[in-house]
Amino acid sequence: MRDAQPRSIRLADYRPPMFLIPRTALHFELYEDFTLVHATLGLVRNPASDERGPLRLAGEGLELRELLIDGEAPVASRWRCDAEGLELDDPPEAFELCTTVRIDPRANTALEGLYLSRGMFCTQCEAEGFRRISYFLDRPDVMSVYSVTIDADRRRYPVLLSNGNRTSQRALDDGRHRVVWEDPFPKPSYLFALVAGDLACIEDRFRTRGGRDVALRIYVEEKDLAKGDHAMASLKHAMRWDEERYGREYDLDVFNIVAVDDFNMGAMENKGLNIFNTSCVLACPATTTDAGFQRVEAIVAHEYFHNWSGNRVTCRDWFQLSLKEGFTVFRDAEFSADLGSRDLKRIEDATLLRTAQFAEDAGPLAHPVRPDSYIEINNFYTLTVYEKGAEVVRMLHTLLGEEGFRAGSDLYFERHDGQAVTCDDFIAAMADANDTDLGTFKRWYGQAGTPELTVEDAWDKDSGAYTLTVRQQTPATPGQPGKAPLVIPLALGLLGDAGNLRLTLEGETPDGEQADNTHRVLVLEEPEQSFTFTGLPERPVPALLRGFSAPVRLSYPYRREQLRTLMTRDDDGFVRWDAGQQLMVAALGDVQAARAAGTTPALDPLLAEACAALLDPATPDPAVAAAMLALPGESTLVELAAHAGGADIDAIHDAREWLRAALGEALEDVLVRCVRRHPPAAAYAPVGEQIGPRSLRNTCLGYLATRGDTGLVLARAQLAEADNLTDRLAALRVLAQAGDATERETALEGFYAAWQHEALVVNHWLQLQATLDLPDAVERVTALMEHPAFDLGNPNKVRSLVGAFAGANLVHFHRADGAGYGLLGGVVEALNARNPQIAARLLTPLTKWRTVPVRVEAMRAELSRLAALPALSPDVYEVVSKSLESQEPQPVG
Ligand code: B3K
Ligand code: ZN
């Protein structure tokens, strides 16, 4: 906790570091109740800096034991140290700084810096955790070559790891041992890592394209040894893929991954020593869902890809975070698309964007992909920086094409290897390699808010000309009242009676030869533009924003029959899915309108017929059918309604449940037949051929849960017979949601009794209960916080129970009496000092008060209560104060 009003850091204030640290030697003496860190830094004045005056090194929570400058203790008046660091007067041009500090990893509950998790020492340094380990120039543009010596008790900590290659190992006196690690690649302090523990490992090898033989090791607790294979296979796939798609090879002799139970996020890309949340690396059929297996594969790949996009080429400052995160998310998304289903991956990513990122962009914490200021950088690991940042990179890929994009990325890596650079450098490499100007495109990095495209069309039967007029505008966001037009790739097709039509723009000569001329990317850059297609034999249905070609909202006045046409016949998988979702949104609108008018809703026959068609045995891809049958999530609907002026969460929930039940009733027979057509596989495997049918069966089960015994009987059988977590959880959810109280409690207790020894399964059990739609949902979550399975110190448990409740159980979180807000506020208050990063992140649902007009007062009241607490962490302070700052709803539309 720092000053009462923590200060903002601004991009405009960036100055190069005064000193550089080409070499860093660290020596850790690890003990149970304290740790000594001896650091020897070789400092030299940075020729690129003209700053003079005292040199400040960052340091927090360090107890300074020794300080030497070139081997001598400096005069007391020439240096000082406070809660934020160490200051040296008139430093020599080049000198050696030795410090010894004492730290207390056992007391570190914030999980930043060096801490203990289940008896194992581990670190998390991004973004600014290294300053909790040693005095340092803890900023990413100071890159150093590290040598790390670790001493610890040999029996309790047989495994001692750090970055790079291990160069020596020997026994010391008193049962201790010493290991030395050298990392030849200069790196910023945020990529430093250390692990010490009693760990087992699975081992494999990988030979790089250039012939380097790399030892791959995944370290886990002995009991989890069998759960590392999937991550290992994923790692090898990722290594090969990065060679093939990007020409990037691995550069050390070892690549280590360590699984840690208490971790603030998913994983961390430390050079040569990735540290993973157990939930993102361990996988086996009994403890991991299908989605979980896919998540492990994607995160292992993401962290591996950072070795180039992040580590070899890193960020100059934290404002450039999307330079590594946006690019790496794009890379991992393409990896997942190449290995699995491209359409499904795109649907998933678009859904995340449209619900959570659009909401962020429309809320009080809206910020550009490259923010201009922050109070606490940890609050800026956001969907905007990651996901929208990845969409910006994807748009570049769309505009430049695969070859042009690859040329740009090759140039970027070649030009900046070993450097700390900016988003401008990335764009410059892309532009230079393609001999093009991306100056206007770059606005995407500086402008917050979701652009809105409005499309109108006109058809001239006589000339066969079809004109699309597209308007773009981006709404105001906090601190950014006016917006400039953006460069937006709008991918589209035009659908006629016999399929997708050939496209010729006015002024072009029709290209009869080109096979793929039914697809087109229009490049928008003006507030309003028109495009005329010629030679069309009929009025087409426009298939717009194919592949979700830009992170924008798009509106076109589709008629339902047109949506139905797109849904069945467009060539683009994303458009087919999206049209289905729009049809469902329209049907939900009917239900809400009928309810509001006090009349009985009726099921849209067009939708019922479309869903029945998806359940038909002739539908080729069960995974796609499942995605298309899934109703838009409540968060998606709330976001849509909020954009249109304000959401009535209860009405949305009621309409969605009504539609689910209506479809369940209308399609009961086909749903049951579909369940029977896709029985569980003989032996579970997390492969596409099984995941698709499983997901379709469980989607059907979700609808059948509204059919009383029909659903319950199927769910009971599935729970009894399942050999995997996906099927068990799907069945358990039906029983817990649709069964009577006895059935619910028996099923939940039985599940806990069977799986209480598996922390990751227990997390699912907590999450499932947190998201049940039961009148006492708030009380259930409150009671579970007292359950032996819950632990406020473990971020996974907090996210599974409290995060899932506030983020996904909307009607109950927004309960009229404010109990849901009180629950969340209480947890944030309890975590504020203990783990500020998690506390601040949990607050997200409460920041969206503007979207729920009838709850504004209650939500703001809880935020105000938090704002008034003494000793608010900068993390929580920033979220709370920015959320409360703007009183007026933002202009919409
Ligand atoms: N770079 C880390 C995230 C660090 C978060 C610090 N609060 C994981 C990743 O994006 O790969
Ligand atoms: Zn990342």
UniProtKB/TrEMBL annotation:
Residue span, Aminopeptidase N-like N-terminal domain: 118-191
Annotated Gene3D superfamilies: 2.60.40.1840, 3.30.2010.30, Neutral Protease Domain 2, Peptidase M1, alanyl aminopeptidase, C-terminal domain, tricorn interacting facor f3 domain
Domain Peptidase M1 alanyl aminopeptidase C-terminal, first and last residues per copy: 561-885
Claim: Chaperone is one of the keywords in the record: no
InterPro entries: Aminopeptidase_N-like_N, Aminopeptidase_N-like_N_sf, PepN_Ig-like_sf, Peptidase_M1, Peptidase_M1_dom, Peptidase_M1_pepN, Peptidase_M1_pepN_C, Peptidase_M1_pepN_C_sf
Top-level taxon: Bacteria
Domain Peptidase M1 membrane alanine aminopeptidase as annotated: residue spans: 231-444
Domain Peptidase M1 alanyl aminopeptidase Ig-like fold intervals: 449-556
Database matches in Pfam families: DUF3458, DUF3458_C, Peptidase_M1, Peptidase_M1_N
Keywords: Aminopeptidase, Hydrolase, Metal-binding, Metalloprotease, Protease, Zinc
Keyword Zinc (UniProt): yes
Cofactor (UniProt): Zn(2+)
One example GO MF annotation: metallopeptidase activity
Biological processes annotated in GO: proteolysis
The protein's Enzyme Commission number: 3.4.11.2
Catalysed reaction, written as an equation: Release of an N-terminal amino acid, Xaa-|-Yaa- from a peptide, amide or arylamide. Xaa is preferably Ala, but may be most amino acids including Pro (slow action). When a terminal hydrophobic residue is followed by a prolyl residue, the two may be released as an intact Xaa-Pro dipeptide
Family, per entry: Belongs to the peptidase M1 family.
Protein name in UniProt: Aminopeptidase N
Organism from which the protein derives: Pseudohaliea rubra DSM 19751
